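R.M. (postdoc): so does anyone remember the format we settled on? I'll just put the structure tokens first.
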């Protein structure tokens, strides 16, 4: 470990069940274990808090209980300013464009500003995020993206002079891997519209017509549950699509051990940790090719299969092919585990410390 620093991670809310929050708490705990003074700050309280780390070694702050609205903006900024002014020299990691716009101008000079973007360039280009990143991130000490491809495209098209890339880290590295012999496809994530689990159900229903022993297990909860149940019934697979609900983080490893293929059917993704986690258990993925982060995790034909975005027919073919071919599942899964080594937490934490050292110069 190099020099010990103060590191602040600021989120709009730090405790919702979501990718930004999971990564924030994983990196915060890892840096705290290495001796850094770490603070995780939520600008407002999560309506349904999720506990990511059982025994956090970092300080956790919630600036205000109410959701940030026009009436509470001034009070929230005062609270953030007081907190930041009490901290020693180091780094403030602002985890989204919204946080950058709220917090960047409140940072004292002794805290270097690092702006993260957890989405992909492909998604940002069609949303207000692209304009926000182009406008605000150029003024920070570093702008951090999830893959080399995303960083390069933001540098080229948003004209950012300060880009680098850091992948999301895996929470843990399993000693055991799946035998890939349980006829089970996994879909993991919040049951929200953007995840497009309806497409995964459709592809599974078609692919399993000749593989009737297979099941699809959807792990997660969310507002789409009722609609997805109805969709599974209309596709004729209600009895073979199992809605598992939310599984505690400590138990998710057993789900990977009991699965054989991961299906990623999202409309857009930044750097989907579920793919890296599946690969660490030796499990191949079938995924829509929606971002540089997905492409950095799934090496098409080597560690899994990529298909064109929204192409359910291609997804069906890729999924059915793996369901019918255990030897190919094992070959891709073994290569995926080797590839996932680069996303182990210790290696990503090394890169965070390298980033701090570069930013300090």
């Amino acid at each position: 470990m190099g020099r010990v620093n103060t590191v602040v991670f600021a989120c709009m809310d730090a405790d919702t069940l979501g990718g930004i929050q999971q990564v924030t708490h994983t990196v915060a705990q890892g840096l705290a274990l290495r001796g850094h003074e770490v603070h995780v700050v939520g600008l407002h309280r999560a309506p349904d808090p999720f506990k990511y780390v059982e025994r956090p070694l970092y300080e956790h702050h919630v600036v205000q209980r109410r959701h940030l609205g026009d009436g509470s903006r001034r009070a929230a900024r005062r609270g953030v300013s007081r907190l930041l002014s009490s901290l020693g020299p180091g780094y403030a990691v602002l985890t989204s464009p919204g946080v950058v716009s709220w917090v960047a101008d409140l940072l004292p000079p002794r805290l270097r500003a690092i702006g993260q973007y957890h989405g992909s360039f492909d998604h940002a280009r069609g949303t207000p995020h692209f304009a926000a990143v182009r406008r605000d991130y150029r003024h920070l000490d570093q702008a951090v993206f999830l893959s080399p491809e995303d960083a390069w495209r933001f540098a080229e098209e948003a004209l950012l002079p300060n880009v680098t890339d850091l992948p999301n880290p895996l929470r843990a590295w399993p000693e055991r891997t799946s035998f890939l012999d349980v006829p089970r496809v996994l879909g993991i994530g919040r049951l929200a519209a953007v995840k497009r689990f309806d497409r995964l159900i459709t592809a599974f229903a078609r692919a399993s017509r000749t593989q009737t022993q297979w099941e699809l297990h959807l792990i997660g909860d969310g507002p789409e549950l009722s609609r997805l149940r109805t969709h599974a019934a209309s596709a004729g697979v209600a009895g073979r699509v199992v809605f598992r609900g939310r599984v505690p983080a400590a138990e998710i490893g057993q789900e990977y051990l009991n699965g054989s293929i991961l299906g990623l059917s999202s409309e857009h993704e930044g750097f989907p940790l579920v793919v890296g986690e599946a690969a660490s258990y030796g499990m191949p993925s079938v995924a829509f090719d929606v971002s540089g982060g997905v492409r950095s995790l799934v090496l098409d034909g080597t560690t899994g299969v990529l298909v064109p975005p929204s192409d359910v027919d291609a997804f069906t073919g890729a999924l059915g092919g793996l369901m019918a071919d255990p030897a190919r599942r094992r070959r891709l899964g073994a290569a995926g585990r080797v590839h996932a080594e680069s996303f182990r937490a210790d290696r990503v934490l090394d890169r965070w410390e390298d980033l701090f050292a570069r930013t300090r110069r």
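R.M.: ...and that's the designed sequence above, right after the tokens. Also worth knowing: The radius of gyration is 21 Å. The chain has 14 helices and 13 strands.
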